[in-house]
Amino acid sequence: NTEDQVYLQVYPPVNDTDDLTDIYFALMLSFGGDYVSIGALPGVQIALDYINSEPSILPGYSLHYTLTDSQCNRSMALESLFKQLSSEHVKLGLVGSGCSVATEPTAEISQFFNIPQVSCVSSSSELKNRNRFRYYFQLLAAESQIAQGFFKIITHYGWKRISLIIQNENLFTVTMDVLKEQLAESGVDFTEKLFNTEDGIDGLSGGIFEPDTRIYVVAMYASHARDFLCKAYYEGIGYPKYLLITYGWYGSEWWTGKASSKNFNCTPEQRSQALAYSLAPRVQEAFTNLTAPDVSGTTAAMYIEHYREAVLMEVNEEINLRSYIPDRSDPFYYAQHCHEATLTLAFALNKTINDLKNNEEQNTTVVVSKNLVENTVFVEKMVKYLQNTSFDGLSGKTVRFDEDGIRQINVLDVYQYQWNNTKIFRANVAVVHVDESLVIHYHQPFSRDSPGMWPDGVPNDGVPIEDVVTVSVGLTVVYVVFAAAGLAFAVVCIFFTLIFRNRKLIRLSSPNLNYLIGLGAIVLYLNIITLVIPTTNTHFAAVLCNINPWLTSLGYSLCYGTILAKTIRIWFIFNKPPVPSVTKSVCCLFGTF
Ligand SMILES: NCCCC(=O)O
User: Fold this and answer.
1) 127 C-alpha to center of ligand 1: Å?
2) DSSP class of residue 374?
3) 8 A C-beta contact, residue 124 and residue 174
4) pLDDT band at residue 529 using 50, 70 and 90 as cut-offs
5) 37 lines ligand 1 (CB under 6 A)
6) Is the CB of residue 122 below 6 angstroms from any atom belonging to ligand 1?
7) What is the distance in A from the centroid of ligand 1 to the CA of 466?
């Protein structure tokens, strides 16, 4: 070692476990703020236990982390990063930084210190930008995928008016931009309200809820969503009249946590009432196979057991982990991804060090300089191996990255907060496949008729229901052609009678009555045409609906009334009843019709 340089002895490998060289990576999680991710720590520790006990991974080294708190806050995250950089140990990578708000600035800065970053909690779509974040890799799929989940739910139920309440952070705004585009293309009306993180939903001028909107997409961190639920409770917003769609990645029982603002003082029960029957999509990253082992031989079931033990044993003496993870039965959702992120970093580090060891030009020692900016050879190799990552992860899926360093997962789970008369529980009700064909495979309960899912029916969106009754184009053409033919025949008959009215035969058939029969036929055929005229204009449709019965009655009366009058007239002529005048009687009878 010199004063400003630290060399890692990479060759020859040191096999004596007593003489292991300690190497470090920076671990940044959030202990507080809008999103608390310290619950991921046991996942990191379980991975490290495996890495340090497996002789083929980083032989001669012992891998450790130094942990700092990002508070899920931009400034705190940067302060935390510089604390990591100025500490005595050289950092060979960064795992974190605990949430997207903290990860965006650190991923932008860490590259200038030649530190590769692997994130395991953040999913902001803003991070999917290789030009801006050159050494960044992400174990979660890009958040914009969730937009598909929101969109599929909205279109599945045919909701046509939506309100979007959005926290002004890229994690939410970028996703909502994708959703807004899809809604606009599908003719769904939406309004949006944006609030700044510092102001909370208190900052929404003109109130939160719209008078004529029933379906709300709640795009914000859980701390603000708790305030939202409280406000909703006091304003009577809840199922069955209203419905909220939130994020499925909020923690378990998130609605029981602390309010973000003191102005929203509600009990968990009150929040539950507003939350009941809400829907919540999330990218499917949880264990899909509990018995399949990952690359380290750990199954999801074993991992869950290790996680509980790690919480009990307080894996880090400096923090009271149990105070952050009160419910040990439910591991922090992203801990498994931080486990995978630690393995990802260690595997790439192992390959990089092997590479450098085998490279004679490196002359056995020059690997990592304390002046991190000089570590271009190291970071280039690290990034190359990170980019080529491929191993079986705990989630039951292969860990690999796309060209932007982001994991691709194209399946979403949709949850519903169901109510069992005593408490809210979360049920998985649908799976959405976000592939090219956008096929949806809904579970059985995801149906309008399932009483478990919608005990009081599917909520309406507040838009009046328009039932459009249409006749197929083919049938319309057939109706119009036949009606026009009949109409033309009736006109021909009238003209024929008019022209030949003085001929004996026509005269005997009563031309005046024939005109009336022809007129009745014309009215009836016209009525058929009015029945099949296509229109979406409600006023015109109302006019047509009103004249239909009149035209039917008038046409029928003219035709059959006249025919009956004719028959009676002939009866009078042939029977010569003792009445004052045949004409008068016929007129009386005809008048009756
Ligand atoms: N992945 C969503 C949770 C936290 C975040 O990205 O900020």
Assistant:
1) 11
2) G
3) yes
4) confident
5) no
6) yes
7) 40
Whether ipTM > 0.90 holds is: yes
Which amino acid appears at position 259 of this protein?
Answer: A
Instruction: Name residue 419's beta-bridge partners.
Output: 424
> Which tokens go with 411?
């399946």
The reply to whether ligand 1 has any atom less than 6 angstroms from the CB of 35 is: yes
Q: What is the DSSP string of 207-249?
A: -S--TT--EEEEES-HHHHHHHHHHHHHTT--TTT-EEE--TT
Closest CA to 166 of 114, 202, 220, 130: 220
Cβ of 121 closer than 6 Å to ligand 1, yes or no, is: yes
Which atom of ligand 1 is nearest to 37's Cα? 4
Token pair 């909502």: residue = 176
- Which residues, at least 6 apart from 107, have a Cβ–Cβ distance to it below 8 Å? 97, 117, 119, 127, 133, 135, 136
Residue carrying the six token digits 């969106």: 461
Q: Token pair for residue 146?
A: 């969730």
At 503-521, the pLDDT tens digits run: 888 888 888 888 999 999 9
Closest CA to 122 of 225, 249, 254: 249
Q: Contacts for 560-566 with beta carbons within 8 Å, 24 or more apart?
A: 560/520, 560/593, 561/520, 561/590, 561/593, 562/513, 562/516, 562/517, 562/520, 562/590, 562/593, 563/517, 564/589, 564/593, 565/513, 565/589, 565/590, 565/593, 566/510, 566/513
- What is the Å distance from ligand 1's center to 119 Cα? 10
Q: Dump pLDDT digits (tens) for 66-112.
A: 999 999 999 999 999 999 999 888 899 999 899 999 999 999 999 99
Q: Which ligand 1 atom lies nearest to the CA of residue 99?
A: 7
Report d(CA 288, CA 307) in Å as an integer. 18
Dihedral angle computed from the Cα positions of residues 180, 181, 187 and 193, in that order, rounded to the nearest 10 degrees: 20
- Concatenate the DSSP letters of all residues of 151-195 into one string: HHHHHHTT--EEEEEEESSHHHHHHHHHHHHHHHHTT-EEEEEEE
Contact 100 CB / ligand 1 (< 6 Å): yes
CB atoms within 10 A of CB 284: 23
- Chain-centroid distance of CA 431 in Å reads 11
Helix axes 41-53, 300-313, angle to 10 degrees: 110
How far, in Å, from the CA of 299 to the mean position of ligand 1? 25
Ligand 1 atom nearest to 122, measured from its CA:
6
